[in-house]
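User: Before I run my own analysis I want an independent prediction to cross-check against. Here's the chain; please return only the structure tokens and, at the end, one sentence I can use as a sanity check.
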Amino acid sequence: MDWAILNNLLTIVISNLAELRRLLGFWVISIFLLQGCGSTMNPFDMRIIEAMSTQLSDMFVADDVVVYEKEELDALKSVDSIPLKWKGKVSENEIASFYAVYENEALYVADEAGKLTKYEVATGKELWQVKTKHKFSAGVGVGDGLILVGTFKGEVLAYNESGHMLWQASATSEILSPPQAQNNIVVVRTVDGRIFGLDAIDGKRKWIYQGATPSLTVRSTAGITLAHGAVFAGFPGGKMVAMSLFNGNIGWEAAVSHPRGVTELERMTDITSAPVVNNRLVCAAAYQGRVTCFAINDGTQIWARDSSSSAGLVMDNDYVYVTEDKGIVAAYDLLSGASVWKQSRLGSKRLTRPTIKGQYIVVGDDQGYVNLLRNYDGVLIARSATDGSMIQNPASPLPDGFAVQTAKGGVYAYSTNF
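Assistant: Structure tokens:
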């Protein structure tokens, strides 16, 4: 049996829980796999498939159904709308990792069709568009004057702010998340568990780190965070690593979460989002695990709280905000980890990683809504619809608002001055 096929299918199912209800049942998937493997299954393999199908049904199908009271739905409809400044359009995105990114009075947007577009952030005017022959898998990343995108074939493309290509480099597999640049180093992460450090001048490889990849993982767009001359990255199995930005040497490793349970599915505790960093702490969240904060200098654990997040977290001077599973946004005290508030009634089970914009927390959802929460108590302040398609990635802060990109390719810029 080709276990790679099974692993990929399971991770897609797990990371797309909202789609699970559309399936006829996991046994249909199992039958498809048996036919596609081209070989006869032995009884042991059959028992594994049966156990996995039962567990997936127990873990996800029942829990994914939420019944909202009429009063709660009416409350969502009655909140103020977020003022829309302008909107644009790029190509649709099915599985790639795209973030609309603000840099120097402009908004940069990439899409799966291989186009990179620059908008004037004040008006939404399209300033230029680069059309390539590549299929983009991740973008946009910025830093050191570079506009960066990655491809499904493992290529990293670097442009300047005028849209001229500066260089192209190759990694070993699909670029998993938007490349990042700092101190003349471009850092990219690939789907095979590697992290590459590239020279920002010409794209030549300077170092490489190989992370462990368990047999069963959640497919994600887990990014990396660059800060204080270091690279912070989380991995499947709940491990977080701090390494030198300049040579890739490991400074410290720490466990955000430990696997628990008997089966492989129960023991999955992957870090599927980028860590967040300030001057003292680095924090990360794990799927089916915990949110944990460590001392930035040596990785000493400061606090940890049980949590499950496949979307991610952000922090400000007071709180750590986590988008937890089942449509919950939670705030924890930054110093102690004490629970401050939880918001669970936003009408969706799949929310994006939070974005901080002034006094607001911005989250998008799989129905194309953007929500503004008050930072100190989680109260829903305003809410607006986009084009009805999923917002997969967090909002990008703008000088006077934020922007989001939808799965259908909608680009929406909103104002928070209201």
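Sanity check: The CA atoms of residues 37 and 411 lie 41 Å apart.
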